[in-house]
Amino acid sequence: MSDALYVYGVIESEDLDVEIDGVNGADRAYTVGYQSLSAVVSDIDTVEPERSDENVKRHDEVLQTILEHDGGRTIVPMSFGMGFKNQRTLKNVLRNARPVFSRTLREIDGMVELGLKVLTKEDADVDPEEIGAEADDRFDRISVNVVENELFSDRLVINRSYLVERADREAFNEAVGEFEDAHEELLVQYTGPWAPYNFVDIEITAQR
Prior knowledge:
Organism: Halalkalicoccus paucihalophilus
InterPro entries: GvpL/GvpF
Strand content: 25-35%
Number of strands: 10
Family: Belongs to the gas vesicle GvpF/GvpL family.
Largest sheet: 6 strands, antiparallel
Protein name: Gas vesicle synthesis protein GvpL/GvpF
Order of helices and strands: EEEEHEEHEHEEHE
Number of helices: 4
Keywords: Gas vesicle
């Protein structure tokens, strides 16, 4: 096996070593540090892992594990496929991108992403604008930010990602439950917590 590294995300400087199924059959995730930053990585035998359903699932599972590990971590998630040929190359990237990583970690400190999809049941007659306005009233007050995602189905009324303080997760959970109870004509799909993919904007090119 080569000394290539696969990177899941970046946290504040910390030594972590977690046994977990990772991308391309990796059995652990650990950190490689540079000054105030630590990249969460796995050893891998290629810098270009296949974008299979299994690998994408493992990528997300590692991020979720670190997000919730030992009380929780703030993590800047990397998009799938970030392979680096060795630690030196990775540390060069961390050095060059340190200002933007540090700023982003401050901006999302103590926050997680929660997903909410709302669909109409078969033959249900609803007013999408009214449902959207009710969602605004219920959820905007207990979230820091919200992203409107694509409505990829005619039955999909709401497809949103919310950035929520960890301390407000229970309140958000309750608000979702109340919304669901109030609308028997709707199907509510509530997911998370996720690393805040939709609320970070960092472009990093994988190093070959």
